[in-house]
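For reproducibility, we list the full input for the zinc ion complex.
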Amino acid sequence: MNEYRAALFDGPGLPLRLASFRNPELQPGEMLVRVTACTICGSDLHTLAGRRPAPAPSILGHEAVGILVTTGRRVTWSIMACCGECDRCRRGLEQKCERLFKYGHAAHGASPSGGLSELMVLRPGTTVLDVPEGLADEVVCPANCATATVAACFRVTGTIQGRSILVQGAGLLGLTAVAMATAGGAAEVHVVDPDAERRELARRFGATACHAGDPPAVDVAFEFSGRSAAMPALRIGGVWVLAGAVFAVPPVAIDPEAIVRGLWRIEGVHNYRPQDLEAALAFLAGPGRRFPFAELVPRTFALAEVNAALEYAATARPPRVMIRPQASSQEGHLPSQAQ
Ligand SMILES: [Zn+2]
Ligand SMILES: [Zn+2]
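The corresponding predicted structure, in tokenized form, follows.
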């Protein structure tokens, strides 16, 4: 009988536990994927540290890429499945679907739903897209989380061409935004981050000026750190897009008169719509190819080494660390046999 292995989250502060399960039986509309790679997202680290509530046991990991078992196609998929029929789905708020299912954040049930597993089952209502040729796993894994979220941020800002941009926080989301702004023809791309190494990295993604302190006023500011203590200075008609505060943070003061007189907008972006995942892939396969995204994933670990990988991710704090649940999947191996 075929079994698959997965790393189970049992609760904050506990190591992940490797376990074997019988291969899932697919329900109508479901698809089975062999997970070839999964990067560790900041939200996974928040869950492990207890800053973000999560059911246990569960299989974490959502920035994954894999091979569809039926067709052999290499695919990425949306981090959520939505119904497409509820009021929110019909209003274009699919990420807040009333029947939303989020991969990597659900209690472990009859089928594996997180990326730290040799197999994953994709449910109906998931956007599944072929990965363009020639994109490394390191580049593709974050497409369905970080890259698509940044694509959603750019969708709400409107045109970037000729505008001055500020990126607050030069982690993976911030660096992706710097690259998208550069590729989109921004006049200036400012970055603010307290970490000198990350500021240096931002220059390699096209940042024109990096700041440890206060940046100048801009047309479009993106908040990815979640830790900005104040609203950034904006020009007339400016917009501040917030996407980083996905955990409890202190309130930030706003000046209502300045918002009124400045014709400013403040936008919140959480996750993304299916079209944003398409935009993310198009970016990575097109203008994004000239940026060093692969270097943001300095180390790769086997599934059995997942706790060492998490330790490394939490202490060395590279933008991403990658796990390879199916080490030989490119050759089309089936899941490992049970002992
Ligand atoms: Zn993520
Ligand atoms: Zn819905």
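The first strand starts at residue 3 and ends at 8. The domain at 150-268 is CATH 3.40.50.720 (Rossmann fold). Both points were considered when choosing residues for closer inspection.
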